[in-house]
Predict the structure.
Amino acid sequence: MLSRHVTNDISAYCHGELSSEESKQFAEHLISCVRCRTKFEEVKLGIKLAEQLPQLSAPDYLWRNLEPLLAKQTEAASASDSVSWSWQLKAAAAVVLLLLSGLAAFLVYNARKPVRGPVIASGASFWRVTRLDGTPRIGSEQIANNGQLGVGEWLETDGSSRAQIAVGSIGNVDIDENTRVRLLQTEPTEHRLELARGKMSARIWAPPRLFFVDTPSAVAADLGCAYTLEVDDHGGSLLRVTSGWVALELADRESIVPAGAACETQPGIGPGTPYYEDAPPVFREALRKIDFKHDASALTALLDQARPRDTLTLWHLLARVNGEDRIRVYEKLAAFVPPPPGVTREGVLQLDQQMLDTWKNQLESSWTSGSVKGVPKPIKDAYWKVKSGLSRRLKEMAPK
Ligand SMILES: [Zn+2]
C-alpha cells in the first residue's frame, strides 16, 4: 500500500492516464484506505452522472429564484454585504448539485439490471485472452495461444479447454471447461462480464465496484477480492469468496459475502442469504428452504444450529422474514452481539436502514478474519456521503 493518499490521482485513474503499475498501486491503496475510497466513489458518481444524464432544461422556478439573487449580488458588491448574498448563491448552486446527484443516484440504481446489452466504448476496447488448455473459441474462431476478446464478443470453452482473461490492468479471470462468457463493457470506471453458464475464478486488485459479472439471476459486484462464480443450466449460480468481499445484487435485494462465505442465487428470486461454508449441513439446508422454497418452518432448525459467526446469515435474514419470525431472528442475533447504542429493537424490527447498517458495521469485525476491514461503499452509500458533504459545506458557507 502507498503511504501517501491518492486523491490527486483519481481523475487520471478514471481517465486511464496512469501506467498499469501506477493503476495497480492506486487500486491497492483504495482497497485499504476509507478516505481515498470515499473520494473515489464521489468522483465515480460524478462521472456516471455526466455519462448518463440526459440534457434537461433547468426548471423555471430555479431561474426565478436565481435571477433576483444575481441582481442583488451585483447591487451588493458596492453595498459591502456581498458575503451573505454570495452565500445564498452558493447555496442555490449546491441545491442544483444536490438535485443532479439525486437524479444520478436514481439512474445508477436503475441501471443495475442483471443482464443487458454490451456497451461499446469510444476507442478500441478488448481484453487479452491466453489459452490454458485445449482450443477455446472467441466467436467462431479458435485461438492458438493468445487472442483478443472485444466488447460484445463471446469466449467459449468446451469439455477440454480453459482460458485466462486479463481484465485491463485490474486482475485476471480464469475460465473453466464448458463455460460461456461475454465482454459487455471495459472502461476505466467499469468493467463488466456476462457469465451465461459454466465457472470462472476472478482475482481482482481493483477499487470496490469496478468489476461486475452479470449472471442470469444476479449481478456480482467486486469489492476487492478473489472468488469463484458458477452458473448452472437453469440460470442459478453459486458464489464462493476466497478473499475480500463480493456483493450479489438483483433489484433492491443485496447480499454481502465475505471471504469464507458462499451465496446461491436463483432466477426470479435473486441472491439468497450468505452463509459460511463451514456452517453445519442442517443449518445450510434450512437456509435453502427459507430462501428458495419460502418454507419459514425451517427457521427453527436454523436458529438451533446458528453459531456466533453465523451473525452474517442472521443479519441478512432480518429483512427476509416477517412478523414473529423476524422477532426470533432478532433475539438470536442480539444474544450473540447486542445491538450498539442508537440501535433499538423497534427500529430493527421496522427495518430502519440506518440502524441495520450501524449494527452491521459492528458485526463486520467478526465476519472478516483477513486484511480487508469494513464494507466498501456501494454507490448508494456514496450518494448519501455526497449529500451529507453538501449539507456540511452549506453550513460552512453560512454567515456566522
Ligand atoms: Zn488514502
